[in-house]
Amino acid sequence: MKPSKPYRVFRNSALVVVVFALMAPLLWMIAASFKTNVDIYDTAKAFVFSPSLKNYETVLQQANYLEFIGNSLWVAFAATTLSLLLGVPAAYSMSRFSMKKSALVVLMARVIPGVSLLVPWYYVFSNLKMVGGFTVLILSHMFVSLPLIVYIMMGYFDGLPAELEEAALVDGLTHIGAFRRITLPLSVAGVATAGILSFIFSWNNFMFALVLSGSDTKTLPVAIFDFVGYASIDWGGLMAAATVVTLPIMLIALFVQKYVVSGLTAGATKG
Amino acid sequence: MSAVLTPRTDSPEAPAAPVDTTSAWSRWANEHRKWLFAAPAMAFVAVLIIFPVAWTGYLSLTDAEGSVRAESEFIGFQNYLDVLTDTDRFWPAVWRTVLFTGVVLFFEVVLGMAIALLLWRPFRGEKWVRVAILLPLVATPVAVGMMWRLIFDPNIGMANQLLGWIGIGPQPWLAGQHSALPTTMFIDIWQWTPMVVLILLAGLTSLSDEPQEAARIDGASSWQRFRHVTLPLLMPTVIVAILLRGIDALKTFDILYATKGRGGGSFHEVETLNVYAYGLSFDYNDYGVSSTVLIIFFLIIIGVMWALTYRKKGLGR
């Protein structure tokens, strides 16, 4: 049934408000990143100003952000790849053999506060002189990625009919062969979903890098604080830095919107 | 997978099984595939998650502080006694954690439900609304905190400018001792309501149309249809949304640290349990006490989760 006209008018105006409330702050941040600090302080120039790329020069050249972008990419890529290698087979086993208790243990990692890992990790890894290196940072990001991947992939494997694998067994494939040649190719969408979500979460992760990264391994969310001084804040530089951190991940998310949404809502409708 | 293609030559007593063309290693692997597949992930979890949590438990019973190489002594439950009687920092932090989580969950679920219902039926321009819903959700929380810090700046921020236009005086927002926590709640609601929208929308889309249709024919108003048909059917999804958002809301750290810095501001005005435990560990190096706070925090989270899943099972019946 088609909704009535008054309802459509109400819905459309309500949606305009929602879209405005969600988008305006992001657009404001991007606009401020093109303003000089003088213009940011001048409320008369809130909407009309001459755009400048000076803040981006500061961020990319003086503040060394190209290096931090590289660090963030490498940590997110490595943590995601390793978590997929460990997580996908584990999720398959847990799904096919209904390993409820093992699954629960992995998923508990989603519940544990990150600080309670950081303390023992800091103890062990600073005694091993590994704090500040990429290895510890990547391992810490896997703490977020691995449970996420197991969670998404378990749901995905639960939804794949076992009959396909049984048919492959009859045709002479081994169990592992059936997993590799039948199940895995059918799961590309699931693996993509899990991988993309893991990448986003790792890129956005702040707390682990705050403690475990050093000057050579600093990731973008930590580097943002370079623009916040004790006495004053370089607002233009800060907004440019915030844009440099957020815009890539928002663009990626737009291109693979379908996967991001299915990953975020995984398990929501199983009841 | 060359093993699959290798002809079997090692056991002449079974010529009737041409299907079984596997090597000894491959046979072993296939028989033990359950643990072979799961073991690497389980080992990671055991070494890097379970062991640290157990160590946190041990540290909470010691007076560990200062350097990580310093000696520490076993002091039993002294830390627990100190923490649980600490009305200066610990209990206010518990209260802020509970308040923060309760308020943001309430608004995120109510607003999320309203927006999900608006988006439920197809309409023109749907694609663009979905883009707007997705963007806050994937934005880096620390950057989101910085973005709002500019908007809420008492002197140059857009928020006070907007209030000025409608004749309301400037507010201190994040800088105020009493307004800081509500302002951070607002930021959390802005960023995470879309998450609830997506989850509830997935739930709504999976509902069948027939109960709705039947209620309509019986003359139920749209509110009655929502209250007595849609909502009860959607309840399991609502609980999932509350569960997922609740766990993350209890552990909120990034936006609090980005907007108020160490210790939740100079008056600890946004210091939740997570921020408090972080500060104890890495600003004061008071590992024994921070571990105690973490263990208590962990128990609170488990308790809330248990209560919610228990309720979910009750509703499933």
From TrEMBL, chain A:
Membrane topology classification: Multi-pass membrane protein
Transmembrane parts of this sequence: 12-31, 73-92, 104-124, 130-154, 182-203, 235-256
InterPro entries named in the record: BP-dep_ABC_trans_perm, MetI-like, MetI-like_sf
ABC transmembrane type-1 domain: residues covered: 69-256
First-listed, main subcellular location of the protein, grouped into a coarse class: membrane
Keyword match Transmembrane helix: yes
Domain of life, source organism: Bacteria
Family designation: Belongs to the binding-protein-dependent transport system permease family.
Name recorded for this polypeptide: Carbohydrate ABC transporter permease
Organism in which the protein naturally occurs: Micromonospora trifolii
Automatic annotation (TrEMBL), chain B:
Bilayer topology term: Multi-pass membrane protein
Keyword Cell membrane attributed: yes
Span of domain ABC transmembrane type-1: 94-308
Transmembrane regions: 35-55, 98-120, 132-152, 189-208, 229-247, 287-308
Main location: membrane
Species name: Micromonospora trifolii
InterPro entries given in the database record: MetI-like (IPR000515), MetI-like_sf (IPR035906), UgpAE/MalFG_permease (IPR050809)
Listed name of the protein: Sugar ABC transporter permease
Signal sequence bounds: none
Family the UniProt entry places it in: Belongs to the binding-protein-dependent transport system permease family.
Key words of the record: Cell membrane, Membrane, Transmembrane, Transmembrane helix, Transport
Subcellular localization, as worded in the UniProt entry: Cell membrane
Residues forming coiled coils: none
